[in-house]
Design brief:
Elements (H helix, E strand, L loop, with lengths): L1 H12 L5 H6 L3 H34 L6 H17 L3 H5 L5 H6 L4 H35 L3 H10 L5 H18 L5 H22 L9 H5 L1 H12 L1 H12 L2 H34 L17 H14 L2 H7 L1 H16 L16 H13 L16 H5 L5 H31 L3 H28 L8 H7 L1 H22 L6 H24 L9
Helix pairs in contact: 1-7, 3-7, 4-7, 4-9, 4-13, 7-14, 8-13, 9-10, 9-14, 10-16, 12-13, 13-14, 15-20, 17-20, 18-21, 18-23, 20-21, 21-23, 21-24, 22-23, 23-24
Length: 532
């Protein structure tokens, strides 16, 4: 049993974040992509470390050093939870390798333990990235007792337990509910998106507490912060008190509750493991097929239909790429219901602007996030050569992938535009920009994502999560439209009064030129480097 556990855990971790490819691959391009991926992760972790370090210093400067440990635990739990809530269920119940594992004399608990070990390592790495910088600042400035430091260092290893348990529980719940539905992948995607927005909505509701601060609370700010953290994440308060007071009882309460929650989640997944798998990936053979009327369609339409079938067959693909358009509709609905006041805190108060000038770029930023084209080439996997061997122009294949992304986002775009128009009642010129800017960014993000994925494809993946959330193309291609929209917002916000429309016109022309250039380069792609 022990040897089986070690072997499966080693298989789960051997190529975490592509490290095994970096170690043993002799292909310079593959190694270069792995190095670039690691560099991107390192940069993001560096930004996170700087943020948490400055946050700890700010709290200590305000005289709130008592709440720093609890605050760091909350942050180090929220970040991994939000990053893994979309993929925990897919990671636990992934289809690849299941048939082989079932044929081996391996207990269900061993398989579940190995997959929980991978989740734990991923959560732990993110936890350390958040905790260690803040901890260093806390230890340097506060100089706590040795017993407090001991509790802090020992407790770090238990911090990932609860967020990992919550993500695994929600993933199992979503997979279990979807397993009883006919269209399983769509059900998993829909339920996962509902869970994500429910979590985000619950977090936003906590902001209402800020409006209830009184003078008495300001006099006892530390107590008030502990009360707020207790509403968000009570175990963090237990951990914070254990570190602050050196109390063994609080530390044992935190450690015991975290361990029991993890064991309960592992037991639940073990009990439901095979039944959920059979319902998710089992097929019911039907013998009532009847030949219907054959229909002929164009090559582009046939390829586009194929893209849609491939898209909706993967829950992780859908749930990670549809959130942007859904958020665009939600943003427009909030504008209609609450007005522009809900966005006034998003920009510096020193910047002078009119909301109709910037809202088109806010919508563009949302619709530009994570287009399907950022990973559409990689999702072909080892069958990409079949697509390339078709007697078709390569341009037609790319057009089908672009068309699929545009058709997918079109209903959300129209709904968001309608809600925004009803909310703002714009003038004719403002309406023109409101319609044009998000549409241009939608096209640009699609073409940009496709160009990035052609440069950084991943065909030897074993799990779709690797492509959708952990590849270079998903990061660079998925954020291109968002970054471009943020830069345009800054340019419009600081433009002189009376020249805003000229600035927007120049940005639109620049975006069109860049989109055309990227599309032309992508169509001349030859499988290695871009054509001259």
């Amino acid at each position: 049993m022990t040897k089986q556990i070690k072997a499966l855990i080693k298989l789960e971790l051997c190529n975490l974040y592509g490290l095994n490819v970096l170690r043993f691959s002799h292909d310079k391009r593959v190694r270069g992509r792995s190095v670039l991926m690691i560099a991107i992760w390192a940069f993001l972790l560096l930004l996170l470390a700087v943020y948490t370090g400055m946050l700890s210093y700010g709290l200590i400067f305000m005289g709130l050093e008592e709440v720093v440990p609890a605050y760091l635990v909350v942050l180090s739990s929220i970040f991994p939870f939000l990053l893994n809530i979309l993929t925990a269920g897919t990671m636990l119940f992934r289809q690849e390798g299941y048939d082989m594992l079932c044929s081996l004399p391996t207990a269900r608990g061993v398989i579940v333990l190995s997959r929980f070990a991978r989740l734990y390592v991923e959560h732990l790495l993110l936890t350390l990235a958040v905790l260690l910088p803040g901890l260093a600042v806390y230890l340097w400035d506060v100089r706590p007792e040795p017993i407090c430091c001991l509790f802090f260092f020992l407790g770090i290893w238990f911090v990932p337990f609860l967020p990992m348990t919550a993500a695994a529980f929600l993933g199992t719940l979503v997979a279990g509910l979807a397993s009883r539905m006919r269209h399983k992948s769509l059900a998993v995607s829909g339920l996962t998106i509902l869970v994500v927005f429910a979590v985000l909505y619950g977090s936003s509701r906590l902001a209402a507490v800020e409006g209830t601060i009184t003078e008495e609370m300001l006099k006892e700010l530390s107590t008030w912060v502990f009360a707020l953290l207790g509403k968000v994440y009570p175990p963090a308060v237990w951990f914070g008190r254990a570190v602050r007071e050196g109390d063994v009882a609080w530390w044992l309460l935190y450690m015991g509750s975290s361990s029991l929650a993890l064991l309960a989640a592992a037991a639940l997944v073990t009990l439901c493991f095979h039944s959920i798998y059979q319902r998710l990936y089992g097929n019911l053979a039907r013998h009532d097929y009847r030949m219907g009327r054959l229909q002929e369609s164009s090559v582009l339409a046939a390829l586009c239909k194929r893209e849609f079938r491939r898209y909706f067959s993967s829950s992780v693909y859908v749930s990670n790429t549809i959130i942007g358009p859904v958020m665009g509709c939600i943003l427009s609905g909030v504008l209609l219901a609450a007005g522009t006041e809900v966005l006034e805190g998003a920009l510096p108060t020193a910047v002078s602007f009119e909301w109709p000038d910037l809202i088109p770029f806010f919508l563009a930023a949302v619709f530009g996030m994570m287009p399907t084209t950022a990973v559409t080439i990689s999702m072909e996997g080892k069958y990409w050569w079949l697509i390339k061997s078709l007697p078709l122009p390569f341009r037609t294949v790319l057009n089908a992938k672009l068309l699929m992304n545009l058709l997918l986002a079109a209903p959300f775009y129209l709904a968001a535009e309608l809600l925004t128009v009803l909310a703002l009642r714009p003038a004719p010129l403002e309406l023109f920009w409101l319609l044009l800017v998000p549409l241009l960014f939608l096209v640009f993000s699609s073409v940009y994502g496709l160009a990035i994925n052609l440069h950084f494809p991943v065909f030897d993946w074993e799990n779709e999560v690797t492509v959708v959330k952990q590849s270079v193309s998903s990061m660079l291609g998925g954020l291109g439209g968002l970054v471009a929209a943020i830069l345009c917002v800054a340019a419009v916000a600081v433009s002189p009064e009376g020249y805003t429309d000229w600035v927007k016109a120049g940005l639109c022309v620049l975006l069109l030129v860049l989109t055309g250039w990227l599309y032309r380069r992508s169509c001349r792609y030859t499988g290695g480097e871009f054509g001259n």
